[in-house]
Amino acid sequence: MYQVGNVSALNSRGQDNVFKLSSSKRWGKCGCQLGARQPSLLSFVGSDSMGHKLKIPAATVMARPRKDMSPLKVVCIDYPRPELENTTNFLEAAAFSASFCTSPPTKPLDIVIAGAGLAGLSTAKYLADAGHRPILLEARDVLGGKVAAWKDDDGDWYETGLHIFFGAYPNVQNLFGELGINDRLQWKEHSMTFAMPSKPGEFSRFDFPEVLPAPLNGIWAILKNNEMLTWTEKVKFAIGLLPAILGGQQYVEAQDGITVKDWMKKQGVPDRVTDEVFIAMSKALNFINPDELSMQCILIALNRFLQEKHGSKMAFLDGNPPERLCMPIVDHIQSRGGEVRLNSRIKRIELNEDGTVNSFLLTNGSVVQGDAFVFATPVDILKLLLPNEWKDIPYFTKLEKLVGVPVINVHIWFDRKLKNTSDQLLFSRSPLLSVYADMSVTCKVLLFFSSLLL
């Protein structure tokens, strides 16, 4: 049995047996030779230097045989990167990020940022681009936050969750381009695949034809699928969506106070549409049910998917996120004079007499001062650290209405390839499980492994 998750193609020390086929060279990505590269100071150097070792009692797991693994003949299908650079949203994102570099400050600021997830890393990256000096603090010894990953004693990676990059993410797509790592995204066929609970092992697809522009490609995908929704349900759903299509962003923002389930009833959309499609979509977007999720979240996604030809096209990262995505951002920050400090957990926010922030006191006793301070952490962490002097300020009282959503991520190993999976993200349509993927199929670095569900 083999690990579920992505194995880095950059640093395979201690796991050469994974990539060796019949020579002493390291191989990955369907047999393409991997060039050697010295890890950065913050890299995962051969073991768990950026992640806690995952300790599992030996009695509860079976050893994963490696010597018996036989090479598989795998045919790789590479779908080309979609043409995103000419879309309005991408051009706006690119212009916005480029604007940070146009006017260097007369007096650069030391800006302290709490949290080295993607939010904190990208904040530090663009502050460094603007000529300031970011000091990024991460409580743990691993980068990535919600995209963090850990290495076990066998050298296998365990990821925090299953991560997908849509074409409708202009800021993230622009970030990949600025870092020169567009080739690390593995684009999949333009379709959405749903499991069929009544027919185990079978799937229903919504295929978006490349020859049609948006929104015609999305309309065609819905009309051609007759396995999940009847024609009557499709028509009623389309009529229900008309106000959102005609009302634009103003209408979308006005739906924040209504749940998905209530909005569907209000628009006369049959309950079966929610059960068949929007339970899966709600859980995939925010990990909560349609009777709790704001319809605004769904409409934002639908609007992007319907208005942008490649908005719903998906890509997987070609390895573990800390090395393949986070480290290039760290390198960029450090090259511009910024700092990234791991194992720097904040104990208290120290205030000045006027209530502004003076410094961050860390649990190791050190004090980090700056000209400005940013929190890029989950809301629950900010709630715990919020100074008493701030709790009655109207802006911060709103935090009480924000509640974090606990998420469980499951890795399952199989001792052979599964027959009924797909090179795609799969929507489970289960009340419990949102999405899953066979990483031994979707991630080229893992093609030589047995099936791995994440």
TrEMBL record:
Keywords: Carotenoid biosynthesis, Chloroplast, Chromoplast, Membrane, Oxidoreductase, Plastid. Residues 118-443 form the Amine oxidase domain. It is an enzyme of class 1 (oxidoreductase). GO terms for molecular function: phytoene dehydrogenase activity. The keyword Oxidoreductase applies. Its main location: plastid. It is found in: Plastid, Chloroplast; Plastid, Chromoplast; Membrane. One of its GO terms (biological process) is carotene biosynthetic process. It is a peripheral membrane protein. It catalyses: 2 a plastoquinone + 15-cis-phytoene = 9,9',15-tri-cis-zeta-carotene + 2 a plastoquinol. Pathway: Carotenoid biosynthesis; lycopene biosynthesis. Pfam families: Amino_oxidase. InterPro entries: Amino_oxidase, FAD/NAD-bd_sf, Phytoene_desaturase, Zeta_carotene_desat/Oxidored. Its EC number is 1.3.5.5. GO terms for cellular component: chloroplast thylakoid; chromoplast; membrane. Homotetramer. This is Phytoene dehydrogenase. It comes from Lithospermum erythrorhizon (Purple gromwell).
